[in-house]
Amino acid sequence: MNRKRIDLEQKLYRTQQTIHKPDSYGIERRKVNKIKNELINSHNNKEDDDDFDNDIVATQIESDSINAANYLIRLNNTGIPICFVHQIYSILPNPTTIDNELQEAILSGKWRKFHIIGSVEDEYVMMKVQDYCKMIEEIKSEEKDVISKYMSIIQDERYFSQVTISTHGLNEFGLNDLGIKELVNNGLLIPHLQVNLYWFSIRKQGYFMSNITHGRTEILRMISKRPTKDIMETLLKAKKLHKTILNMDFLIHDLVGSGRVERLRIT
Fold first, then answer.
1. CA torsion 117→122→123→128, rounded to 10°?
2. Do 182 and 212 have their domain in common?
3. In whole angstroms, how far apart are CA 98 and each of 19, 41, 71, 124, 179?
4. What pLDDT was estimated at residue 265?
5. Domain with 252 in it
6. Quick one: pLDDT at residue 152?
7. pTM exceeds 0.85 for this model
8. How much is the pLDDT for 26?
9. Domain membership flag for residue 184
10. Rounded CA separation 155/158 (Å)
11. Sign for the pseudo-dihedral over CA of 180, 185, 188, 192
């Protein structure tokens, strides 16, 4: 492979590695596509007889919604790698596009969506399947067979997009009442209000929601105490929180995305 191709491949790699925040206006995506086109043109150059690795050209960057989810998860310092779906709405402008991109990631088996107990009915969080499987594997259970069967459910494409599972569905994977109880005790299932139905669950979600609730309350109280009932975002970010370990940026995305506060632009 000649020097020009090597330089282009290294440039492509560096460009993709530096995309951390959501690319709302497609600037970084255009940079990557430009480099890919240069690589393709280099490959099509008849004067160059070197072999070319098509996998490099086919490399795809994540969707803006997944970039946003990754960005938010990095802000989440509870040690539980999740973010709310509505937080992504606070970053990107088109909810329909966000929903479609997240659904595509879920159906690919790379991400899962969970309903969080303690939030309102339509609040969901996103988590990488890889992180969830790691969480499952960390369980110190004597019932290794139960954990293995649950892992099989998570990796079954029929359940990629499901946030609940029935007792019958669990039984199909060889999980009896004792096995289901074991999963509930380990925080992987939560009984639904509907009989014989369970929520797929994230362990230690109570700890996460406790920090979310305390953070929301503390920030809303700060704003409500002001005579104008508003505050400059830069001033708010400079304030220290005492009731939560979550940082201000993560909580602002939560409050804006859920509609609890409104972000106004001053011109």
1. 90
2. no
3. 18, 33, 15, 13, 36
4. 84
5. 206-258
6. 97
7. no
8. 60
9. yes
10. 9
11. positive
Distance of CA 152 to the CA centre of its chain: 22
Number of domains observed in the structure of the chain: 3
Residue range 95-147, pLDDT digits in tens = 999 999 999 999 999 999 999 987 666 789 999 999 999 999 988 766 789 99
Q: Give the chain's residues under pLDDT 70.
A: 1-60, 119-121, 141-142
What is the SS3 string spanning the chain?
Answer: CCHHHHHHHHHHHHHHHCCCCCCCCCHHHHHHHHHHHHHHHHHHCCCCCCCCCHHHHCCCCCCHHHHHHHHHHHHCCCCCCCEEHHHHHCCCCCHHHHHHHHHHHHHCCCEEEEECECECCCCEEEEEHHHHHHHHHCCCCCCHHHHHHHHHHHCCHHHCCCCEEEHHHHHHCCCCHHHHHHHHHCCCEEECCCCCEEEECCCCHHHHHHHHHHHHHHHHHHHHCCCCCCCCHHHHHCCCCCCCCCCHHHHHHHHHHCCCCCCCCCC
First to last CA, the chain: 52
Q: Which residues make Cβ contacts (< 8 Å) with residue 199, sequence separation at least 6?
A: 114, 115, 117, 163, 164, 189, 190, 191, 192
Position 40 scores a pLDDT of: 60
Q: How far, in Å, CA of 190 to CA of 241, rounded?
A: 31
pLDDT at 19: 43
pLDDT for the residue numbered 125:
97
Residues 212 and 195 in one domain: no
Asked whether residue 265 is domain-assigned, the answer is no
